[in-house]
């Protein structure tokens, strides 16, 4: 049983970071109930990994009966995840004031891009926009080339989904002491800004040039912190920052001290990068793995995400699991006494509607009336 066993989370259907947060809470043992529309896509058919471990309830929130049904469910919940733009829940009649009146211990977690207030609060946006406004996108890419989006990992997932879980867990801990719930304003732009904390410090002491890409220690400028093509066209990554790790890199790659000895001579980084690239291209990825993997060089082969589950380190750690034939990341972090787990793969659209309402105290006659009114599906 996971550490959140006994907690109930209602997740209003959305995309990206909110479902990721709900997935992590479900992995940790919470009962996560996803509220969906009758005409929504079937996440089981789509093999949507974020739907694992969740119950699927179809509810028409545009009907008064649907709103009242949700509010009765809220009375039995610990958390509600709102993935909509600011004001949408209020218009539906399920805003935080209404929900907290029905359940004062409720944690009402609001997941948006720009936050609940401010000049951009009601504007549409995506990960690429949120990381643009925080400097994260500007800093990512090669010098004199356009910025490169780091997938949607920084804004949506790290700055959104992870921050959502962080906030929910903190609010649940506080509610255990105070007996009171609260509203959490989780904004992807805020999360992306937090992820940039290190570089603000670097810039403040003159250790980072924020005006250029590929000009600094961690952005690909340093020859000892970059990726390199091998003889077989595949790639490796090096992160030999500390002097002892760099010394080992020089030893194992047979790099002459006269050419590579002054590690932090930034003026010579381009030259050393070019020379190191030529050395790396003399061997295949497998040959470099045999020579460096598992050493303190800070080395790893660059794998695709379909290759990653087969790497021996990931196999040994059970970093990936297979659920309903889909290979996917295993739950994390790992708990010694109350381990997380994937209870099941995605359920079909509305598969759990009747059973969930019955478990929450709805009478059979009430459920039948809701079905006949088209409120549930």
TrEMBL record:
GO molecular function terms noted in the UniProt entry: catalytic activity
Domain of life: Bacteria
Family annotation (PANTHER family): ALPHA-METHYLACYL-COA RACEMASE, SUCCINYL-COA--D-CITRAMALATE COA-TRANSFERASE
Pfam families, sorted: CoA_transf_3
SUPFAM superfamilies, per the entry: CoA-transferase family III (CaiB/BaiF)
Xref: InterPro entries: CoA-transferase_III, CoA-Trfase_fam_III, CoA-Trfase_III_dom3_sf, CoA-Trfase_III_dom_1_sf
The protein, known as: Carnitine dehydratase
Organism encoding this protein: Haliea salexigens
């Amino acid at each position: 049983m996971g550490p959140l066993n006994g907690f109930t989370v209602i997740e209003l259907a959305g995309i990206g970071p909110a479902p990721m947060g709900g997935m992590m809470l479900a992995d940790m043992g919470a009962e996560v109930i996803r509220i969906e529309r009758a005409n929504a896509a079937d996440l089981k058919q789509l093999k949507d990994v974020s739907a694992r471990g969740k119950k699927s309830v179809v509810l028409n929130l545009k009907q008064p009966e649907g709103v009242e049904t949700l509010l009765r469910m809220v009375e039995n919940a610990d958390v509600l995840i709102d993935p909509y733009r600011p004001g949408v829940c209020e218009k539906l009649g399920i805003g935080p004031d209404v929900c907290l009146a029905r359940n004062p211990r409720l944690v009402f977690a609001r997941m948006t891009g720009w936050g609940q207030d401010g000049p951009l609060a009601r504007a549409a946006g995506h990960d690429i926009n949120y990381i643009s406004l925080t400097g994260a996108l500007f800093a990512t890419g090669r010098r004199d080339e356009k910025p490169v989006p780091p997938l949607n990992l920084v804004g949506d997932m790290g700055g959104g989904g992870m921050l959502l879980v962080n906030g929910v867990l903190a609010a649940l801990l506080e509610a255990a002491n105070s007996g009171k719930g609260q509203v959490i304003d989780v904004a992807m732009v805020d999360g992306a800004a937090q992820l940039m904390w290190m570089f603000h410090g670097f810039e403040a002491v003159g250790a980072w040039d924020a005006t250029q890409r590929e000009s600094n220690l961690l952005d690909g400028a340093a020859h000892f912190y970059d990726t390199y093509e091998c003889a077989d066209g595949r790639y490796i990554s090096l992160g030999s920052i500390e002097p002892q790790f760099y010394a080992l890199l020089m030893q194992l790659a047979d790099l002459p001290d006269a050419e590579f000895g002054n590690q932090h001579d930034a003026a010579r980084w381009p030259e050393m990068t070019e020379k190191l690239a030529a050395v790396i291209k003399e061997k295949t990825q497998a040959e470099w793995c045999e020579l460096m993997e598992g050493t303190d060089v800070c080395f790893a082969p660059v794998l695709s995400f379909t290759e990653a589950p087969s790497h021996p380190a990931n196999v040994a750690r059970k970093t990936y699991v297979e659920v309903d034939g889909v290979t996917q990341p295993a739950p994390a972090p790992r708990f010694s006494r109350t381990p997380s787990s994937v209870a099941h793969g995605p359920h079909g659209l509305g598969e759990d509607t009747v059973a969930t309402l019955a478990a929450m105290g709805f009478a059979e006659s009430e459920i039948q009336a809701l079905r006949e009114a088209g409120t549930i599906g």
